[in-house]
Structures are given as structure tokens and as C-alpha cells.
Amino acid sequence: MALISDGRFIEDDWRRLADEEALPKSGKVVVSLARLEHALAHLPEGVSLGVNIPNTTDPTSLTRALSRLELVEIAFPAFADGRGFSLARLIRRAGFTGELRASGRLLADQYAHALGCGFNTIEIPDELAERQGESQWQAARAAHARTYQRGYVAPGSILDARRKAAAQ
Amino acid sequence: MTAHDPSLARPNAPTTTYRYDEYDATFVRERVAEFREQVRRRLEGALTEDEFRPFRLMNGLYLQLHAYMLRVAIPYGTLTARQMRRLADIADKYDRGYGHFTTRQNLQYNWPKLVDTPDILESLAEVEMHAIQTSGNCIRNVTADHFSGVAPDEIEDPRATAEFLRQWSSAHPEFSFLPRKFKIAVTGAEHDRAAIMVHDVGLRIVKNDAGEIGYQVVVGGGLGRTPFVGKIIRDYVSRADLLAYLEAIMRVYNRFGRRDNKYKARIKILVHEKGIDEVRAAVEAEFAAMNRSVFSFDPDEFERIAAFFTPPPYESLPAESAKLRTQRVAHPAFGNFVDVNVSPHRVPGYAIVTVSLKPIGGIPGDATSQQMRVLADASERFGFGELRVSHEQNIILPHVKQEDLFDLWKLLDGAHLATANAGLVSDIISCPGLDYCSLATARSIPVAQAISKRFSDLSRQRRIGKLGIKISGCINACGHHHVGAIGILGLEKKGQESYQITLGGDPTFSASIGEILGPGVSAEQVPDVIEHIVDFYLAERLEGEAFIETWRRIGHARFKDVLRREGEDGADI
């Protein structure tokens, strides 16, 4: 898998822990949603915890865990399945400030959408990363410099810009 | 580019529609550049066809039976003369000299080349037009009453709301990969001319007890293979809360709409399976949980947009033109045109003209580039340079002085645009059908043409009165057959085209889905069956009774008998 952060491919310092694997003494590990409760109950000091969740997860079931999580990774089973965008919004609304990651076959063309909904990083298969290099991700992000919506993460909101221009 | 005759144009004709500011213009240019890049990446292999597809669709480009088809948005159906001329120029340069106006206030070109489409989009952007979100699983072009701003029965011009929603829904970060397409229609009048009951979301502008303007919100209507009349989810949403409430609906739909089966993925199925009460509870819970402060800028923005939709500088005229009265008598063909194609206007001395794109035996909704230019000229000479596109696939000139109607009629007649059949039996809504569409199971245009020819006598059509026939060439129902007073659905049975006829459909506030008349009939039999139904209606109707009223009064069973008797006559039905 390849990881995109701020328009660049970076090394992933998180390790995905299989459900049968014991919790390590240190480091950054991602567990499945099924494992989450157990991991939180037995979390060694010095271990950073992340969780991988399906896009059908009820965000209210995570409310108590969010303050102890440093990474929430939402699975995108297909790039055209946009449920993860709404789930990201709801997880941000619940107060999560850690790293929000989209994991699956997301396309460069969806980068601005993902950032807008609160994702920080995108994890894609290597095969896709070979076809869609950094420059394509950067260009796709730049193509949506201003948006018509407010309340989403974007370099600029057209409504805000209009308001500012009208006030001058 | 072909120039029009400048001597015909009224100088500085004001238009009363939204104009792009620098942000709108930049946004549309960015979309064109983005799509140009996507086409390049597709050809280079960075995007596979499956990956390219949703982005191609979100820019209005379909792969059809013979070629690509480009669907251009005409937001809330309003066009300026300049925009209409540009559509004509594109038809000449990139297509075969014509375009097809659809039932959702769009224009389709049937023969563009993939590599030309970025240039076409750029050409559209120059006149503040685009093809953004005319297809794909996103919020589609927002439609509105084609008599907006001029209808006597209007509470408020719905186009300001529609433009407000056009902007809000464009390239939405969260709602661009929905389970399925999402269509919104708005009306501000007492009579629904925008078919809001059969949209994913229908908005009806209403006044509350305090006299404040807000919206009644209808959700879960739709046609297609499982037609439903929408249900009221909320009686009143204030204008300040409109976007927040819509966002709540969209979020519930995006999360819970079915994605396992594309034919069960529309919001109407969610409403049907969960029930309106459960959907309402989910939407209200989301609405209550939202941070509504981000929408606090909206009322000012709405006012900014609404200021564009002000009335043009009408003259003070007598309510009725004496000149018109004389001309109607002196020229019977013109008199018929006025009787049928001219509607009352809210301003004394003015009229609304429907230009029929349904010549007898013609292709419903098609216009040649030359006709588009004549319409542009007509709008400048006689109507402040403004045109509308109706979901009935006709063109509207919304501000014509009654005393100019005769001159306008002569101009239209010279371009074969004066067919006096608006709303009559030959004003047929039809999808492109098997002649163009890759989804179709049967032809629809030739059936429309055959019916039109059968009823070619316009005086007979006037005796029959208003009667909507709608034809779809497959169960996806683009021709809205479910809500036709007479609906015709083309299917394929054992390799043969078979046409199922429904009666009693109604696209207005009193919406109903048509009921099946009987077994399917062949294409050749359709005109006979329609004629028998119409004759039966004429025999049974009471004074002034519309088809749907007679059908509701005497019941479907009596009409079924007509088809049964037809079968006994030896026809193979």
C-alpha cells in the first residue's frame, strides 16, 4: 500500500495488527473494530492506537474511544462508495482531532473531496499509486481551490470570499 | 461562429437571470480544466475506463448506442439569447446541426467526439453555461417551474432558490458519490408545473402563518422502474434552514441508501422500505445534531442571488390589447395559436408564449441550430432576450407584449415553430428511445410521430383539449410515462417491441401514477388504441372535464373495456 499525505507519498509508520497478534509494548498499531474494546482495555503505556472501521460503522459507537485514538482509518470498499465521506464528517463532528485516513481504491480525482470531509491521509494499493503519481494528486487538489460549501475543509470558501469582498 | 442578424436584436436587451461573478466563472473554468486533464489521463492510461466513467458522467458525457452524448445543463430552464445562440453554434461546429431538449431542462448533443468535449465545455463556460452534474450519482441540475417570475399564481420566483441550490450542490465534497442520482425540483406557484412530487426532493415555496416564506419539503418521489409519488417530510422549513435541512436529508441518504442493487438505490426505495416516519426521524435527528452556525451566512447570499431575478422593465399597458383582438379574428390560424400556446401573464398587457418543439410528425424536443437562432432573435425582439425550456420539451418566451404576438407568430411560423399544439394530444413528451439510447428496449420517437400524424388535424386536437401523452422506450421512464394522462412504455417481448399503455397519471400536486390498461400492443397498434381511448373519453366527458377528471370519475375499468373490445374486433392484442 502507498500512503499520501499533503500531496506526497510518505512512509507509513503505523503497523496493522492481526486480530490474533498480541499487543506490542510500544509503537503505533492499528486494530480492527472487533478488537478495539479489548485493545483499549489492555493498552500498554507508550503504544499509540488506531482503528480500522468499515464505512457502515455507527459513529456513536466510537464516541468514548475517540479521545484515546490517534488514528481512525475508514475503509473504502470501492471508490464510488461515498459513505466514508459522511462517516468522516460525523467522526470529526464528534470531536476527533487525530489522523483520519481513507483506505481503499480512492482516486486522485477524489482528493479534494476527502480532504474536505476531514481526512488527512489516503492509503491506496501500490498498483494504483503507480498509475496515479504525486503530481496527479497535487493537481486534483489544486483544481478545487474554492468551494461553494461552508463547514468543509477547503483552501477557500466562495461564500466567505464574497462576504469579504462585499464588506470592502 | 455564425453571427446572427444584429439588426434584429434589441440593443442592450436586459436579462433577468443570474450572472456569474468571478468566483462562479473561475469555478466553471476549473471544472473544464479538470475534465480536460481527466480525458488526457484516460487516454494515457492513468485512469481506467471504470475509473473515468463517474467523472465523465459528472461532466454530462454519456457513452450511447452510436456515439457519445453530451448533456448540457440549463439551470432552472432559463436561457439568454446569447446562450441559445451559443448552443446553436456548438450544434453546428461539433454536432450535426441540432440539439435535443430533455424533460429535465437539459440539452443533449447526440454526436460529439470525446476529444472535442473539453472544447465544447470551454465554449459553454464563455457564456456562463456548463454540463456539470447533468449525470452521475450526484445532485443533478436543479429544475424549476418554466413560468417562474411570470405566472399569475406565483408566491415567489423559485429560480433564486434553484440557483442557490445549484451553487451549494456543485462539486459537493460529501455528496458527489451517492448511492444513485439525486434530482431536486422547485416550484413557487399554486399549480405545479415542475413535477415536484416525482423528484427525489421536491420543494414547494410556501408561506407560514406569520407570512414568512419557507419550503414544504417532499422526499422520495420518482419514476423509473418503481414509480412513487413523494411524501411530505416537513411542512415548513424556513429559508435560513433550507441548506441545513437538505444536508441532513443527503447525509441520511448517503449513509443508509442501498448500494447493493442500483435499481433499489434511489431515495424513494429508502423511504418505501423504511417508511417516511423512520426516514423523517433520522433526518430530524441529524438536523438537530448539526452545527447550523456555518449556514448563518446563507440568508445574505440568498438575497444576493435573488436580486438577479427581478422583473424586466415592463411597459404600462392595458390589460387586453385591442390590436390583438382584431388580429385574432382576422387571422384564424393565429387565433388558434393564441388560444392554445399563449398563457396569461402576471403583468397587464403581456403574455407567456409556448413555442412547441412538437411539429406534427416531428421528433419531440429537437431543434435545429437555425431554429435556435430564430428563437434567440425572437426573444430579443419580443421578450427582453430571455427564454425558458420546459420539462414538456418546449421553449417558452416569458415576456411578450400582447400587441407583438402577431409579429412573433409570423417569425415563428417562418421557421416551422408555430405549431399550435401546446398541451394538446400531439404535444408528446418522449425520450430518445432505441434510435439513440443504449438502455432502451423499444423505439419511442417513431411511436410519437405516428400518434402525432394520426391526430394531425389541429381542430380535432382542440376539440379533444389538453391531454398529455408521454412515451418512454424502457422502464427507466425518461419519458415520464407514469405521469402521463396517457402513458406509453416500450418494452421488448420475445424479440418484438411491445407497448404497455397506462392511464390516469398526473405530474402535479395531485400526483398519481398511471394504471396499466391491459396487455401490451404492437407499435403499429398504438395509434389505434390511443384513438379509441380518446374517442371513448370524448363520448363520456362532461362539459369542461379534462381527461384525468373523466378517468377518475368513471373509473379505470370502463377504459379497460375499450381495449378489450378492441381485442375482440380481431386485433391481435
Structure write-up:
The complex is a heterodimer of chains A (168) and B (573). Chain A has 168 residues and is α/β, with parallel strands linked by helices. Chain A has helices at residues 33-41, 63-66, 83-93, 111-116, 126-131, 134-142, 158-167; strands at 2-5, 8-10, 15-16, 27-32, 47-53, 71-76, 99-104, 121-124, 146-147, 156-157. The longest helix of chain A is centred in the middle third of the chain and has 11 residues, at 83-93. The model of chain A has no long low-confidence stretch (mean pLDDT 95). Chain B has a five-stranded antiparallel β-sheet with strand order 1-2-5-4-13. Chain B is an alpha+beta fold. Chain B contains 18 helices and 20 strands. The termini of chain B are far apart. Chain B folds into three domains: 1-138 and 313-418, Sulfite Reductase Hemoprotein, domain 2 (Alpha-Beta Complex); 150-306, Sulfite Reductase Hemoprotein, domain 1; 429-568, Sulfite Reductase Hemoprotein, domain 1 (2-Layer Sandwich), CATH 3.30.413.10. The chains are: A alpha/beta (168), B alpha+beta (573). Chain A binds chain B through residues 79-83, 85-87, 89, 93, 107, 109-110, 112-113, 115-117, 131-132, 136, 139-140, 143-152, 154, 158-163, 166, and chain B through 21, 23-24, 26-27, 30, 33-34, 37-38, 41, 45-47, 51, 54-55, 137, 167-168, 170-178, 251, 254-255, 259, 289, 291, 294-295, 297-298, 300-301, 304.
